[in-house]
Amino acid sequence: MGKARIAFRFGHYGDCFHGSQVQPEVPTVQGVFMHIFKKKLKWTSEKMPVSMASRTDAGVHVRLNGGFIDIDESRWDPMQKDGFIKAVGHQLPDSISLIDAQRVADDWSPRRALRRTYLYRLECLPGWIEPSLDCFTEWCSFFEGTHDWSNFCRRESGRTTTRLVEQCIPWISNGRIVGFKIIGEAFVWNQVRRIASALLSLATGYRTVERVLEARDNPTIEIDLGLSEPDWLILWSVEWDGIPDIVTEIPSIPAPDYSSARWRDLCRQQQKEIIIRQFDIIEGKY
Questions:
Q1: Is the pLDDT of residue 129 over 80?
Q2: Model pLDDT, residue 266
Q3: By CB neighbour count within 10 A (0-12 exposed, 13-18 middle, 19+ buried), where does 4 fall?
Q4: How much is the average pLDDT of 145-160?
Q5: Largest Cα–Cα separation, the chain
Q6: Which of the four CATH numbers 3.20.20.70, 3.40.190.170, 3.30.70.660, 3.40.50.720 does domain 115-243 have?
Q7: How far apart are CA 4 and CA 211, in angstroms?
Q8: From residue 16, how far is each of 125, 193, 199, 235, 267 by CA, in Å?
Q9: Could you report the per-residue pLDDT of 196-232, keeping only the tens digit for each?
Q10: How far apart are alpha carbons 121 and 170 in whole angstroms?
């Protein structure tokens, strides 16, 4: 019996899962899909039937990620996209939005993406001082290009830490610097959150430009510039050849209400609202 490889796209609330990658005894996005495909729908008996494009930590909201599953052709042919969405979507919690599904080549992998786009909201980090736009734009440019990002990642034995960052630019909302937007084919683990920490240290004056560039340009010398919280990171999109990107505008965000002792809790609600609104828009269009 022939198999059909089905690529599907989805988003999820980061505060509802212990990350995207399956882990024992805790809820994860990959674990939810595996349970549905294996136990609920009985579409597969493989031990690890679901592969995903990007792994995210607990707290990281995801507007759009992607994965695949191999199922019998005889099952896919009669149901196609609409049947897949109905069958899987009915089993999913509200914290996951299933966007679409389509058959792809048998060797297609979600890991081989054209690019990934992340947003990081720096203004919610303690100590943030908004710099001039010129300064911040220059600082963001430090993180563009091809580099060995050993000092800006969680090091993993046997894995290359060299990556190309296509673009790193200010994220502007209502005329103020909210954070930054960063685009690349792929990122190493914790890369964006460590870049966020470096940018925060420049804004507060805790680190100098020279020290940040030293960390970037001397990967064999371990220089730790910190790791920012996952709560303010959004995986905005993953793009693949042959699959049209889902384009929507990044919404404006109200400035933090510093008059509240719980202003960061309010900001966390805003972060989640961004994703909720995006799910409404995307589900309405697709």
A1: yes
A2: 96
A3: middle
A4: 90
A5: 64
A6: 3.30.70.660
A7: 51
A8: 21, 19, 28, 15, 17
A9: 999 999 999 999 999 999 999 999 999 999 999 999 9
A10: 10
